[in-house]
Amino acid sequence: MRRSASAKLPAQAPLVPDRSGAPAKPRVCALRAEAPIIGNIVCDGPWEILCSIEGELRGTELTIAAGATVVGSVVARDVTVRGRVTGTIRAVNVKLRGAAAVDGEIFHQTLLVEEDASFDGRSRTLSDHPAMTQRHPGSG
User: Fold this and answer.
1) Where are the domains of the chain?
2) 76 and 43 in contact (C-beta within 8 Å)?
């Protein structure tokens, strides 16, 4: 059973007070689903994706968790991949961590690929393609 969705998730992540008395930091919100989500998802703040998505994932700080998959495109300011992405990633900062697997194109300003991560595709800087530097949710 597959679900189709086009969702806009809350603009503000809940705040968690810091024990040191420093200003509160946004808590990471998580997206989970038993069946793959098909459609476009827009979220703001730090989000951890723990499921399979077919479509476009757009946000500010996105983490594709180990075991999660995205088939389509990921657009954000910061993207950390620990799971699998097949398609295009457009972000200022991209990190492929652990056993991450990316098959496609990555448009970035900074790219970190850890030793155990795999990347099959093309890497290009955002400055090479000005049209790719789209506004991201929460960027002003």
Assistant:
1) 3-12+26-122
2) no
